[in-house]
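Entry 12.
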Amino acid sequence: MALSVSAPISSLCFHQTGEQSSLFGYRQQKRLSPGRNSRSSIGFDAEKVRRKSRVRVTICRAVPPLLFKDLDADDFRHPLDKQNTLLLRAIPGLNDFGKAMLGSMTEQIMLLENIGTSVLVSKNQLSDLHGLLVEASEILNIEAPDLYVRQSPVPNAYTLAISGKKPFIVVHTSLIELLTRQELQAVLAHELGHLKCDHGVWLTFANILTLGAYTVPAFGQMLARTLEEQMLRWLRSAELTCDRAALLVAQDPKVVVSVLMKLAGGSPSIADQLNVDAFLEQARSYDKASSSPLGWYIRNAQTSQLSHPLPVLRAREVDEWSRSLEYRGLLKRANRISTLENV
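Predicted 3D structure (tokens):
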């Protein structure tokens, strides 16, 4: 995502904001670049069951997945996401100014750029992926967006929401090659989390506002830096929320942690040698190393300019939430769905 857009964008790759790639996962760490898109993002092998021309993809689960029929975004929103969203909304005129900056031309450019270079997934085109998306959407109680597959060597996935148009998710081919089907569905669920929580608008505001402010001397640059710091804090917290959405769909914390691990340092040739438990132990060792005053300072300096939390910290957050009363309460409220049910 390389141009200033007025469309809400969110991606999976971590630590970046320049081109559209704030994937559920992780890429090279970058600061939020003025006037460029930010995104966020997360592969598999599944059995298809066709019925009445609709497709349900069955992932190898011990039991059918749970369905959250009355799920609200605030049921799984991370506390830091809630806090930082309130801080953004408290900025006078932010919403109105952001909307004024949104233009139909840039929306159309971004829309055509994405759909003109990708393959639209449907029940008749890459039906396995279509089934994964439909099931994830049903579990999270959200309307399924469109899904596109785009040729790219950079593992990434992102969401684009344009006012008045159906939102869509784009997944890169290299991401599909890297992940299992359960992991790929977790990535889709992460992106659905951005839509469920209306994150796209704020992601767009981050880019548009910093671009506009940087064009104004002195005070404008101070304003841009302040807004950028606030937006980066919000972006990092929003990713934690969407990791929770991924867990609600995967219903196995090791699946989500495995995605984060692979995006941090995986490749198709070594994927089967990676160890989730070892990665979680790595996360605990990072916490221990950064617990001293000096470690705390270095940790803050390391993360303050990132659009995504560090992968080990995200893995730890997922692991901790999976054992929380909040998560268990959501599971108790959910209903078991049949893999043969129409979708």
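Annotation: DSSP finds 13 helices and nine strands in the chain. Residues 83 and 234 are 9 Å apart (CA to CA).
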